[in-house]
Write a sequence for this structure.
């Protein structure tokens, strides 16, 4: 306070640590400029990391679920050693833990996350922070392994978590853990409940495993790799357009104000998840049920396992919208003669 900024920062500039940021915290002078400088550097680093991403980097796999469903035990079983703490008490894992892992010559990064309870049950501030880190890990991941406890079966919190994963566009594998502790009658009941309540993710693999004993997890990473490869699959415009035409031939879009919605062609718009852009007219009036039909048609024809498919609709601009046709003198005379004839008829 009360000093010239250039004089005050001159002796610090010679240290070679970059441009000094003079502030007066009490009077809030220079604070906003300091925050802007910090945020600009942070955004630049984030954009750099996104540009550097390529398919040769490890596949990020987040293991999520409710507390005490066996996420840490599953990761230890995959690694073949006790790398993370696994204890029969909810809340053992507080922060997301990133662990390098190689399986069949493919590099992965396993992310052990904190268990997610219902919002009203998470009263502790640390637990709320842990849940936020888990949701952040889902968006960072390429593939998500959702762990469900077979003993408690599918509960509402499982459905909320799955819905969040689907809306985030992440590839997904749902695994039902603690399978070894059930008898045959209980197993049949669990299978029926899983089939009934998880119909909205019927495109994902659902292995039944025991993370503690290691049974059933041999193919789990194969399912993870399959889901990832499907999510980054290259899609050609002719193939997508052909599938669209076949879907239209089997089931036409509904009429809107007496006019049929026309969907002309489709092309790829992105990966992880696969994004398919469909061009046509009146696409904004297309019903959600028909969009789901198109999504299932593309997934079935392309044999996409474990990944959602995002459909993006685009309506072509009308080149004549807002334009008026100018009549020639001869057309004007003809129009006047016709109007006279119409008036005589009336």
């Amino acid at each position: 306070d009360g000093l010239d900024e250039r004089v005050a920062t001159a002796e610090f500039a010679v240290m070679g640590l970059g441009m000094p940021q003079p502030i007066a915290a009490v009077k809030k002078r220079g604070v906003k400029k300091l925050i802007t400088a910090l945020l600009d550097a942070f955004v630049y680093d984030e954009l750099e990391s996104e540009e550097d991403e390529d398919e040769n980097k490890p596949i990020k796999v987040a293991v999520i679920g409710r507390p005490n469903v066996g996420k840490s035990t599953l990761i230890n079983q995959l690694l073949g050693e006790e790398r993370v703490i696994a204890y029969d008490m909810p809340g053992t894992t507080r922060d997301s833990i990133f662990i390098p892992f190689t399986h069949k010559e493919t590099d992965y990064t396993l992310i052990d996350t904190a268990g997610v309870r219902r919002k009203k049950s998470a009263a502790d501030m640390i637990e709320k922070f842990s849940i936020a880190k888990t949701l952040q890990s889902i968006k960072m991941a390429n593939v998500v392994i959702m762990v469900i406890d077979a003993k408690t079966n599918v509960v509402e919190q499982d459905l909320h978590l799955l819905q969040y994963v689907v809306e985030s566009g992440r590839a997904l594998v749902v695994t039902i853990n603690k399978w070894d502790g059930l008898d045959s009658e209980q197993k049949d009941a669990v299978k029926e409940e899983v089939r009934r309540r998880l119909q909205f993710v019927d495109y994902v693999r659902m292995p039944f495993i025991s993370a503690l004993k290691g049974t059933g997890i041999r193919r789990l990473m194969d399912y993870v790799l399959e889901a990832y490869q499907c999510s980054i699959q290259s899609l050609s415009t002719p193939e997508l357009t052909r599938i669209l035409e076949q879907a239209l031939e089997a089931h036409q879009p509904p009429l809107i104000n007496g006019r049929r919605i026309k969907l002309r062609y489709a092309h790829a718009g992105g990966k992880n998840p696969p994004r398919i852009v469909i061009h046509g007219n009146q696409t904004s009036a297309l019903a959600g049920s028909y969009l789901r039909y198109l999504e299932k048609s593309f997934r079935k024809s392309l044999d996409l396992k474990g990944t959602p498919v995002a459909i993006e609709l685009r309506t072509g601009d009308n080149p004549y919208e807002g334009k008026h046709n100018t009549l020639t003198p001869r057309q004007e005379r003809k129009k006047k003669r016709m109007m006279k004839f119409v008036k005589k008829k009336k």
Summary: DSSP finds ten helices and ten strands in the chain. The longest helix spans residues 31-52. The radius of gyration is 29 Å. Confidence is low (pLDDT under 50) at residues 43-53, 85-94.
